[in-house]
Amino acid sequence: MSAGVGPVVGADDGVPRCPWAGAAPSTMRDYHDAEWGRPVHGESAHLERLTLEAFQSGLSWATILAKRPAFREVFAGFDAERVASYDDRDVERLMADARIVRNRRKIEAARVNAAATVALRADGGLEALVRSHAPAAPPAPATTAEQQTTSAESLALSKELKRRGFVFVGPTTMFALMEAIGVFDPHLVGCHRRGR
Predict the structure, then answer these.
(1) Is 18 annotated as a binding residue?
(2) Is 36 a catalytic site residue?
């Protein structure tokens, strides 16, 4: 088994970062430094991240980041009620929009998940449900070989969301969501963002 890779020091700034963040200034590095692993607040922020993680499945995160402004526009700022009201004409409109990932199943999943988000309000809401699955003992990987892609908590969150009517919320996708929104600190030990 590979020993994996630890944080990589940027040649331009001497700052240690998770290896995927890139060695030079880039969109991925900016996302790593300013957003990844930081808590978000509110229903629309959680629905946005859940939706984008579903769209990312099978693609690079850099692709999704590049398209995020268009996703925010076409999904009405991820206002759950508005997206839940989308009809088949809206799905066709989105399928014709080259600015986003045009995958019918994922577009329809966004509509289904928005409706499930609205329904979840009666039980505390999407944010509370996701946050309730924070691990009691968060991972603290020192190298990429120690990083997980699923956990007991992401599996439990996936099952609960599916029970509540959500789709495209498998345990790997939910683990990525939990990392992205700071349900736990996802940064490698030694990364400048770890513990911040």
Answers:
(1) yes
(2) no
* Residues of the chain below pLDDT 70: 1-2, 23
In a domain, 29, yes or no: no
**Is 86 among the residues known to form the active site?**
no
Question: Looking at residue 111, which CATH number applies to its domain?
Answer: 1.10.340.30
| Set 61, 108, 146, 160: catalytic member | 61
Nearest residue to 180 via CA among 64, 7, 6 = 64
Each residue of 137-185: pLDDT tens digit? 999 999 999 999 999 999 999 999 999 999 999 999 999 999 999 999 9
Looking at the 3D structure of the chain, how many domains does it have? Answer: 1
- Calculated CA dihedral for residues 36, 77, 129, 66, nearest 10 degrees: -30
The verdict on whether residue 187 carries a ligand-binding annotation is yes
Could you tell me the residue range of the domain that residue 82 belongs to?
Answer: 43-180
- Is 32 annotated as belonging to a binding site? yes
In a domain, 78, yes or no: yes
